[in-house]
Write a structure and sequence with these properties.
Order of helices and strands: HHEEHEEHHEHHEHEHHEHEHHE
Number of helices: 13
CATH superfamily of the largest domain: NADH Oxidase
Distance between the termini: 72 Å
Shape: globular
Structural class: alpha+beta
Strand order of the largest sheet: 1-2-4-3
CATH architecture of the largest domain: 3-Layer(aba) Sandwich
CATH class of the largest domain: Alpha Beta
Strand content: 5-15%
Bound molecules: flavin mononucleotide
Length: 394
């Protein structure tokens, strides 16, 4: 017969295990990338009964967005779509001119256009003009109107099909990339001619140091850190409640470290910042096989910010189709805007042009590429209807 002490110890052990099991369940240790917050990834082709303007929007909402803020809104009509930017879903001081917010809209437009092709429609975008400037506005503003017309060029569909197929498989990968496995020039060449790639060892070292410095300066800026921290999501409940932001599952941790991280008490913003700097310096920069930069000719045109996003989304989809991992590393761009708003000198533009070997243009988007050690998990998406303004037509 077990002793009384043994029964008590056994009971306590079972209680601890049950509590641990509950916490593991509550924190989503067993459900990484699963559940309603991720349902959109399986519904990206919409439904046959939907109107032609509504159907491609299921793919649009799977696009990349700054901090997974999903700052878009769509109004489908019979054969057109009005696209809005929801300025309330901003990154505050981390994106003072809302450059990244508009780039995120550009990402969604790329997915939208590609998805429309699969329904034999050309999505012709008529963009509104406008300038990026420091703002605290939180309203919803019209950005573009899209006309959907029957497609004239059947060849285009087969050319772009690999990008369409990549839509549900594209995920930002913040983990280790295979060290010593370069991306050859021919593959880089197929990713889109709009990016300048940095593959030279010495230039990559300088460029990596600039990214780390940008990260250090970012987290040292209390306002940027706080505003950025508002988009961090820890645990299953937070993810399911918000269905946006950056979750622990998307931090680029191995599956074991990810499970342990979720069991730990919630990270403070300062703790998350420290982790971010360490992983930038020790994982993301040193294991990159190549860096890339998208340049713009008119840094403060909203249309150019949107175009940078569209180019990024297309490039990331192309990279996905070649089994490459990719991650934006936009800290230097964010510091350029922050310095501008605070009236501080910033030479990043000149330095980045030198490192990338280009003579003109301003950097608008920075990223890294490589072959992944581990696949990245999907990020949550808000419910479809939350981003649709209904006119009752489509
Ligand atoms: C304009 C823009 C800027 C971004 N900047 C960064 C960045 O600096 N670091 C990073 O890890 N991810 C960055 N991302 C990636 C987003 O965080 C990511 O797209 C979002 O969390 C959704 O995840 P998904 O791309 O896996 O769908 C950026 C994305 C966009 C569109």
């Amino acid at each position: 017969m077990p002793s009384r002490r043994g029964v008590i110890a056994g009971g306590a052990g079972a209680a601890v295990l049950a509590a641990l099991g509950y916490r593991a369940w509550d924190r989503g240790v067993f459900s990484a990338g699963e559940g309603r917050a991720y349902a959109a990834w399986n519904e990206w082709q919409g439904h046959a009964g939907e109107g032609p303007a509504r159907r491609p929007l299921h793919a649009a909402i799977l696009a990349a967005s700054a901090h997974n803020s999903q700052p878009w809104m769509f109004e489908p009509h019979e054969d057109s779509i009005t696209v809005y930017a929801d300025l309330s879903r901003n990154l505050g001081a981390a994106d003072p001119c809302r450059r990244e917010l508009y780039a995120s809209i550009g990402c969604a437009l790329a997915n939208l256009q590609l998805a429309a092709l699969t329904f034999d429609l050309d999505a012709i975008i008529h963009q509104n003009a406008g300038r990026l400037e420091p703002t605290h506005a939180t309203n919803v503003v019209e950005v573009a109107k899209i006309s959907l017309i029957a497609r004239m060029d059947p060849g285009l569909r087969s050319t772009l099909q690999p990008l369409v197929d990549a839509i549900p498989n594209r995920h930002t990968n913040r983990g280790y990339y295979q060290h010593g496995n370069p991306v050859d020039a021919a593959t880089l060449g197929k990713l889109g001619s709009r990016a300048a790639f940095i593959t030279d060892k010495a230039a990559m070292k300088d460029f990596g140091a600039l990214i780390v410095e940008g990260t250090r300066r970012f987290i040292a800026d209390r306002q940027m850190s706080e505003d950025s921290g508002r988009w961090l999501r820890t645990g299953r409940r937070e993810v399911e409640e918000h269905r946006d932001g950056i979750a622990t599952d998307n931090a680029g941790l191995s599956s074991v470290t990810n499970a342990l991280a979720k069991l730990m008490p919630d990270q403070t913003v300062t703790g998350a910042d420290r982790y971010w700097l360490a992983s930038t310096r020790e994982v993301q920069v040193p294991t990159a096989a190549a860096f890339g930069v998208l340049f713009t000719t008119d840094r403060f045109a909203i249309a150019e910010a949107i175009a940078a996003g569209t180019n990024w989304q297309m490039l990331h989809l192309a990279a996905t189709s070649f089994d490459l991992a990719a991650q934006p590393l936009n800290q230097p761009i964010e510091m350029m805007d922050r310095d501008l708003v605070l009236g501080r000198k910033n030479d990043y533009g000149k330095e980045i042009r030198r490192m990338a070997g280009v003579k003109t243009g301003d950097p608008a988007f920075i990223f890294r590429l490589g072959y992944p050690e581990d696949a990245a998990l999907p990020s949550p998406r808000r419910p479809f209807d939350a981003v649709i303004r209904s006119t009752g037509v489509a």
